[in-house]
Design a protein that fits this description.
The complex is a heterodimer of chains A (361) and B (287). Helices cover 23% and strands 33% of the residues of chain A. Chain A is built from eight helices and 22 strands. Chain B has one domain: MetI-like fold (Orthogonal Bundle), CATH 1.10.3720. Classes of the chains: A alpha+beta (361), B mainly alpha (287).
């Protein structure tokens, strides 16, 4: 187990990167605490897997360093970094039994058979693979295969970090749940640092203590699932997390007040930073309510998503979504929208620009 | 329920007719010949299983069969490992991939008789590139019309040159279908190159290798044209493989009966070995 530090990490797939767009990863400085359960969340192509492969050593970064407990491992090959990685598609050695699959990483490192047997049985028990040890791995179901790939990572003692690269993609929905809670349980038992890459917010939020949100090769926010939901640091986070995502409404700023379609909107706190830039108001649909007062709007669509209704309201030409519990207005009806001030924020050029409540200016 | 699908037979009929004309009818003719004796003029006399009995006890047949198995065994032992090694060392991506693939495919595009003629000229001691080089530059006595070893070395080299590509291309197809994650996982697991080959590449190539071995077995077991053009079965009978002997009996001596009996035995052996091999190779998967 180790604390992992990424220092001034940059990576480009081009031989001679010049412009910032050439970089798949733009300067990343990040600490992963020892024993933490992290999720790396972001849309496809945002650099998540690149980052993962750099940590595991499958990819050499163009610039920067990777430190395990302060020791520079940037030049070490994957097998010497003591890491484990589980891939999107289960990787198993077809011709071997489950036992031999799990023993493979140990035997490659010349560990004696007695310890191998003991260790394999221990891990198999933890993963509930005990009765399958003598079966050919090729014939197993995808979820068991994925357990084997996990087991091959966990079987080595003192694994620095276990990384999961969208490990549930090929698993049936009803088994996804089981495997996910198994993962969580494993984390509690082995206490290794775990990094879970996914583009599925549910997976990320249920697995992780800390979620790292990436977009376009950059880390946009790190926080607990609640923090990410309640106070997104970037409009991208607000939009990407939550269903439906945060309303991002362009607005004007005049003398310290935000104006949306000419109406002043109350924010959580004072506006920070310079004037100018593109300014937007961010408000989650959960905190938009329909009432007698507030912004005039017209209902365009109501979707029943089960637990509640999602109402699409038009303020002028701008769409504002609201989550409504209880009775809903009819399509075409004129309503008034109000935003909960404590949850309404201003974003400048994408980044949050209002002071959090409770902080003094 | 069943009645609805009887129409399907109608659609199979054209193929059935085609197969009948190019396989079943000729084969039945052979069966017919194999149990009779003819002295020409379309006169046939019943012979029963006599030809089969004589053939199975004939030394000439045993020798040809032995040579045939030896030839097939040698070329398989060379072509399969060599093909795998070449496929492993071919690039997986980039500019050189099509170059390699086309280069590999070239020998297979050359007609059999041309291959035979090419190697014949190539090995002529006086004017052939290889023959001249061996005899006059390196001072090695090499003449496949005189020397049994030289003749065998030449037919084997020729077959390896002509057909290793097939194994290469099939193995390569198997190799490129292996997802990167396997190699990455193996790296993390600390697997050696040999372990990667043994536990990832070889199992993933198994299917295509089965086909490759099967095709090479059948083709080499039935080889005729190249050897006929190259050595004509000589020196003496040194390279008279089964098919060469068969044609000698059928067309050279016009012994239709024995030749027909031999064809059937020949056919049965090919069929049996192919079946045996295929069953053994695919046994694991069905369990």
């Amino acid at each position: 187990m180790a604390k992992i530090t990424l220092s001034k990490l940059r990576h480009s797939y081009y031989p001679n990167p010049k412009a910032p767009e050439d970089y798949a990863l733009k300067e990343i400085d990040l600490d992963w605490d020892d024993g933490g359960a992290y999720a790396l969340l972001g849309p496809s192509g945002c650099g998540k897997s690149t980052l993962l492969n750099i940590i595991s050593g499958l990819l050499d970064p163009s610039e920067g360093q990777i430190l395990f407990d302060g020791k520079d491992v940037t030049a070490l090959p994957p097998d010497q970094r003591n890491i484990a990685q589980v891939f999107q598609f289960p990787v198993i050695y077809d011709t071997m039994t489950v036992f031999n699959n799990l023993a493979f990483p140990l035997r490659n490192r010349g560990i004696d058979e007695v310890s191998v047997k003991q260790r394999v049985e221990e891990i198999a028990h933890m993963l509930e693979l005990d009765d399958m040890l003598q079966l050919r791995a090729a014939g197993l179901s995808p979820d068991n295969k994925q357990k084997i790939s996990m087991g091959r990572g966990l079987v080595r003692k003192d694994v620095n970090v276990v990384m999961f690269d969208e490990p549930l993609t090929v698993i049936d929905p009803h088994l996804k749940w089981k495997l996910r809670s198994k993962l969580k349980e494993l984390h509690h038992r082995v206490r290794a640092t775990m990094i879970y890459v996914t583009h599925d917010q549910t997976e990320a939020l249920t697995f992780a203590d800390q979620v790292v949100v990436m977009n376009d090769g950059e880390i946009v926010q790190i926080g607990t699932p609640v923090e990410l939901f309640e106070r997104p640091a970037h409009t991208f986070v607000g939009h990407f997390i939550g269903s439906p995502g945060m309303n991002v409404l362009s607005c004007d700023v005049n003398q310290g007040a935000a104006l949306f379609h000419g109406n002043p909107i109350k924010l959580e706190g004072a506006i920070e930073g310079d004037k100018g830039g593109i300014t937007e108001i961010g408000i989650r649909p959960e905190y938009v309510s329909l009432g007698d007062q507030g912004l005039k709007a017209k209902i365009r669509k109501v979707s029943d998503v089960g637990r509640h209704n999602v109402v699409d309201a038009m303020v002028g030409e701008t769409l504002v979504k609201a989550v409504v519990n209880g009775p809903v207005p009819a399509q075409g009806e004129a309503v008034h929208l109000s935003f909960e001030p404590a949850k309404t924020r201003l974003y400048r050029d994408g980044w949050i620009a209002t002071q959090a409540q409770g902080t003094q200016p | 329920m069943k009645k609805h699908y009887q129409k399907a037979w109608l659609f199979v009929l054209p193929v059935l007719l085609l197969v009948a004309f190019n396989a079943l009818i000729p084969m039945m003719t052979v069966v017919n010949y194999s149990v009779q004796e003819t002295f020409g003029n379309n006169l046939f006399f019943w012979e029963g299983l006599g030809w089969f009995e004589k053939l199975l006890h004939s030394e000439r047949f045993h020798a040809a069969l032995g040579r045939q198995f030896l030839f097939t065994a040698i070329i398989l032992a060379i072509e399969i490992p060599l093909g795998i090694i070449i496929a492993l060392s071919m690039p997986r991506s980039g500019f050189w991939v099509p170059v390699c693939l086309v280069t590999m495919a070239l020998p297979m595009l050359i007609p059999w008789n041309v291959v035979g003629a090419m190697w014949n000229i190539f090995t002529l001691p006086d004017i052939g590139l290889l023959g001249y080089l061996m005899n006059h530059t390196l001072g090695i006595n090499y003449d496949m019309t005189q020397n049994t070893f030289a003749a065998w070395a030449t037919i084997i080299t020729m077959d390896v040159w002509h057909w290793t590509s097939l194994v290469v291309l099939l193995s390569y197809a198997g190799l490129v279908s292996i997802p990167d994650a396997y190699y990455q996982a193996a790296k993390i697991d600390g697997a050696s190159n040999w372990a990667v080959f043994r536990y990832i590449q070889l199992p993933k190539m198994k299917q295509v290798l089965t086909i490759a071995i099967l095709l090479r077995f059948m083709d080499s077991f039935n080889i005729y044209t190249e050897i006929f053009v190259l050595t004509g079965g000589g020196p003496g009978n040194a390279t008279t493989l089964l098919s060469i002997d068969l044609v000698k009996i059928a067309l050279g001596q016009f012994d239709l009966g024995p030749a027909a009996a031999m064809s059937l035995i020949y056919f049965a052996i090919t069929l049996f070995v192919s079946w045996l091999f295929y069953t053994l190779m695919t046994k694991d998967d069905t369990n």
